[in-house]
Specification:
Layout (H helix, E strand, L loop, with lengths): L7 E7 L5 H10 L6 E5 L12 H5 L11 H12 L4 E7 L4 E9 L4 E5 L7 H4 L4 E6 L2 H15 L4 H20 L8 E4 L5 H17 L3
Parallel strand pairs: 1-5, 1-6, 2-5, 6-7
Antiparallel strand pairs: 3-4
Helix pairs in contact: 5-6
Bound molecules: cytidine-5'-monophosphate (C5P).
Length: 212
């Protein structure tokens, strides 16, 4: 593979509920049939099969230690070397990895999305473009309450307790400070069509340069 054919890695981060998944999905959906893929940091939450369900509830899921970052880096490097990976699948209702994996073929554009992807310098070094989606805390908590109850099997009181005791302090300590590493800061995530247009235009240029 020529150096200029090395896949491009676009990191998209931001706090929980910031809209980073919507931004990433909007960019991905803009290129149907093109050589582009999403890699979610959430898929790389550590396996917790050895812990009881009660013990898993005590894990701090907003701390860098919650992730198997070594595996994520190995997989990202494999994709950059044009090798396919078996992507883990995470089950939020069980707080551990599911037994299945998903075969992911390498692609020319990789959108790496997650709350702490800019926290580890080894990951930052593998990215070509770093994006931070910056959304007000009140909007993020409202989105999180709705999503965690509807999609992740939580109760309102679970979500509020977890937010105040863990999610908010970890956001301040680990996520917000990574904004300084971003090349681009997007206010209001998936609602920001101008930012999404700029990103898709940039990626289109990459595809054109590579005649893809
Ligand atoms: O999609 P989002 O970026 O919000 O996912 C990250 C969030 O998922 C973290 O803030 C973490 O608190 C939450 N999480 C959870 N339970 C798990 C794993 C992650 O509440 N088992």
């Amino acid at each position: 593979m020529k150096k200029e054919d090395k896949p491009i890695v676009i990191g998209v981060t931001g706090g929980s509920g910031s809209g980073k998944t919507s931004v990433s999905q909007a960019i991905f959906n803009y290129f149907p049939g093109k050589s582009i893929m999403m890699l979610e940091q959430d898929s790389y939450y550590k396996n917790q099969d050895h812990l009881s369900f009660e013990e898993r509830l005590k894990t701090n899921y907003d701390h860098p230690f919650a992730f198997d970052t070594d595996l994520l880096i190995t997989h990202l490097k494999d994709l950059l070397n044009n090798k396919s990976i078996q992507k883990p699948v995470y089950d939020y209702t069980k707080h551990t990895r599911s037994s299945e994996t998903i075969l992911q073929e390498p692609k020319q554009v990789i959108i790496l999305e997650g709350i702490l992807i800019l926290e580890d310098s080894r990951l930052r070094d593998l990215m070509d473009i770093k994006v931070y989606v910056d959304t007000d805390d009140d909007i993020r908590i409202i989105r999180r309450i709705k999503r965690d109850i509807e999609e992740r099997g939580r109760t309102l009181s679970n979500v509020i307790d977890q937010y105040l005791s863990v999610v908010k302090p970890m956001h301040t300590q680990f996520i917000e400070p990574t904004k300084k590493y971003a090349d681009i800061i997007i206010p209001e995530g998936g609602q920001n069509q101008v930012a999404i247009d700029l990103m898709t235009t940039k990626i289109n240029t990459i595809f054109e340069q590579r005649s893809l």
